[in-house]
Hints:
Layout (H helix, E strand, L loop, with lengths): L8 H31 L5 H33 L14 H15 L2 H13 L4 H10 L12 H16 L6 H11 L10 E7 L5 E6 L7 E6 L9 H16 L7 E7 L15 H17 L8 E7 L1 H12 L6 E5 L19 E4 L6 H4 L13 E2 L2 E2 L9 E2 L20 H10 L21 H5 L5 H16 L1 H32 L3 H29 L2
Parallel strand pairs: 3-4, 3-5, 5-6, 6-7, 7-10
Antiparallel strand pairs: 1-2, 2-4, 8-9
Helix pairs in contact: 1-2, 2-3, 3-4, 3-5, 5-6, 9-10, 14-15, 15-16
Amino acid sequence: xxxxxxxxxxxxxxxxxxxxxxxxxxxxxxxxxxxxxxxxxxxxxxxxxxxxxxxxxxxxxxxxxxxxxxxxxxxxxxxxxxxxxxxxxxxxxxxxxxxxxxxxxxxxxxxxxxxxxxxxxxxxxxxxxxxxxxxxxxxxxxxxxxxxxxxxxxxxxxxxxxxxxxxxxxxxxxxxxxxxxxxxxxxxxxxxxxxxxxxxxxxxxxxxxxxxxxxxxxxxxxxxxxxxxxxxxxxxxxxxxxxxxxxxxxxxxxxxxxxxxxxxxxxxxxxxxxxxxxxxxxxxxxxxxxxxxxxxxxxxxxxxxxxxxxxxxxxxxxxxxxxxxxxxxxxxxxxxxxxxxxxxxxxxxxxxxxxxxxxxxxxxxxxxxxxxxxxxxxxxxxxxxxxxxxxxxxxxxxxxxxxxxxxxxxxxxxxxxxxxxxxxxxxxxxxxxxxxxxxxxxxxxxxxxxxxxxxxxxxxxxxxxxxxxxxxxxxxxxxxxxxxxxxxxxxxxxxxxxxxxxxxxxxxxxxxxxxxxxxxxxxxxxxxxxxxxxxxxx
Length: 538
């Protein structure tokens, strides 16, 4: 095809549609007539020539579509120009990027397939890949939705260029080492860099295993304080789950993704007390998770796991951003932006939550609604997802080593990792539920500060829980069990007050759950009291 000095995008689009329709009509007619002519022994050479013309016409369409995409992109930059001017000869990589971006927005699967085919054919062509990468925005989502191996190649191209620049930040060098250095503890040969940018604190999406072919895929979303400079620890969590899931002997492979595609809150005010970070991150997470399905081959089971503030982002994405996945997992949550599992757009039987007994984060994440200050099951961003009033399922995470470290131990060997693994690989029947006593936590809630007389059991209980846990051994067990008994009794007191509040505000559903919790907490208090005595005499 010769050079074109200027393009009218609308006119060219019309011509493409007519050529496509005409070529398909002509080819169909030629096939039909050739069969008829052949049946009667007539000469079909003329029909074969017409069919060749139809084929030639179709062969011109990919090039015309690329030129049209470039013209549309040029017109966006100069909206007042009727004609678009594109450089000749045009860059195939740049044209493919423009075509892909427009095709995805328009739902044009044929053009998406054309670009994907081009990219695969040019994976060893650095000039083509560089042109494609240069045309894409500098954003973690730049190659989102492309096949994992293609996105990996393009993102590594960008990261390598950044690493080679003078004054490259250490976190980028570390990320490059994670991806390329066999001696690095988080390196594996089957890592895929699905997204990357160095904007702000940096953003990244890394998969262990290929999500396009894996039978199971887990997406892990970290919480407060997460940044590219701290990626090593979060990568290790994704790697730990990857190894655990693939060592079970379950059919099919599991891919484990670390996703930091949002700006996580820092520890300075308002930090994790603000929902704005989740509201901004939820649409990005939803877009990423939803982009995995179109490239996947075969059946897939997707689980999205949130930790700490990451649970708030995950819940927001399910409830308000249209994220589609099979299971949701929340650990150490300050709330997930809704009060009921049914509000997440998932079957509540596929909504899982856990908190270690000594994890302080769910306990200190107090709601700002004074009407809920007497409710032990209200967190900062909605009902505690481990509470019965939330309506999902729980899994055991153990106690944790203490309030200082329990919040960070969910990926350590133990019941939490085992249960998350079973959820990810689709074995919910093997998941062990969270003990009722662990749902009360080990810190007094806000209600106990408002009415310390009513809250004496819940103030003294956590103190004994923590003391017993620290002492350990013969004396520690009965002390901790005594604290459990007192704390559970205090929870029952608060449940009574919460029931009254729910009835006064007309929330009959919550009142019903509170009444159920009163019975559970009293029963748990009695069991722990018996255990305290038994421990003392054994």
